[in-house]
Amino acid sequence: MNFTVGQIADQINGNVEGNRNINISTISKIEEGKEGSLTFLANPKYTEHIYKTSSSAAIVSIDFEKTKKIKTTLIKVKDPYSSFTTILELFNKDQSDKKGVSELTVIDKSSKISDSAFIGSFSTIGKNSIVSDDCIIENQVFIGDNVKIGSGSIIYPGSKILDDTIIGKNCIIHSSCSIGSDGFGFAPNDDGSYKKIPQTGNVIIGDNVEIGSNSTIDRATLGSTIINNGVKLDNQIQIAHNVEIGENTAIAAQSGIAGSTKIGKNCMIGGQVGIIGHIKIGDNVKIQAQAGVTSDIESNSRITGTPAISYMNYNKSYVHFKNLPEIVKKIDKKDWWLEELYLKKQFLKNLL
Q1: Are strands 194-196 and 186-188 parallel, antiparallel or unpaired?
Q2: Exposed, middle or buried: residue 336 (CB in 10 Å: 0-12, 13-18, 19+)?
Q3: pLDDT tens sequence across 220-278
Q4: Which one of 49, 174, 241, 278 is the catalytic residue?
Q5: 320 belongs to the catalytic site
Q6: Greatest CA separation found in the chain?
C-alpha cells in the first residue's frame, strides 16, 4: 500500500514541512527508518533519532522545534502517537478485505453467516449462531451454539467462543482465548469432597472491546459476566463468573479478577494485580502492578501494595520499611543505654 506524504497528512490534519509528494510504502521505528518509510516521534527520549533517521517522513508534535538540520520531511500534528495509530490502521486496512467461507470449515445449517464475513479453515460454528457483516473468523476457531458476533469483529486463530456468548461490534479477540467456559464454582460436601455448581449464565461483551491472547472469561453462574463497551484486556487475564467491568477500563497482563466483583468505568489496572471476589471498585481507579485488592475501593482512588492501600500512604510507609534495619539498630542501642542507666541507678541506690 502506497501513499504520498500529503495524503497521509490530510488523514491526520497535519501540516507538512518538506516535500508533500514523497511516496510512503511502509512504517518503521524511528531508529530503524529507511527510505520510503514513515516514522513518528512522541517520546522526547528519542528526539536525537529524528536527526539521524533515514525515514522519508516523520510525524512529530506541532510544538517540535528543530535544533539541527533534518533530512526527513516532517508532518506536524497535535498528538503524534494518536496520529501514528491512525496511519497504522490505514496501512493495515487490507486485512478487512477478507471475505468468504473456507471449504474446510464446519457450519451448522441453522446458523446465519453474513455474505461479507470471512470464515477461515478448520473453524467450527454450532447451532443457531450469528456472524454479522464484515466479521473475520480466522482459522481453527470454535464457535458454539447460540453465539452472536457483531459486525466488524475479528477473532484470531485458536480461540473458543462457547455457547450463548454475545460479542458486540468491532471487537478483537486475539489467539487462544476462551470465552464462556464454566466459572470456578464448587460446593464442599461433608466428606471433604466438592460438588460442581452448574454454570448456567453467559458472557456478554460490548462494542469496541479488545481481549489479549490466552485470556479467559468465564460464564456466569446465573445471569451474565459483562465486559462493557471499550474495555481493553491484555494477554493472560482471568475474568471469573459474574464479574462486571465498566466502560473503557484497561487491564494489563496476568491480572485476575475473582467472581462477582464489579469494576467501574475508566479504571487502569496494572499487570499481575489480584482482585478478590464480591467487592466493588469505583470509577477512574488506578491500581499499581502486583497489588492485591481485598476490599471495596472508592472512585478516583490510586492504590498499590498487598493488601492494597492508598498510593501516597504506601509510599510513606515504604520509606519507614526501607529504613527498618537502621531503626531497629537505634532502638536496640537505646534499650542498651536505658538498661545501663538503670543498673547505674541501682548501684548508686545500694551505695547509699
Answers
A1: antiparallel
A2: exposed
A3: 999 999 999 999 999 999 999 999 999 999 999 999 999 999 999 999 999 999 999 99
A4: 241
A5: no
A6: 109
